[in-house]
Amino acid sequence: MYTEVNIISLLINAIVIITMFIIYKTKMYKTKEKQASLITVSLFIVATIAYVATKILFWTEL
Question: Which stretches are transmembrane (predicted)?
Answer without folding.
Answer: 6-24, 36-59
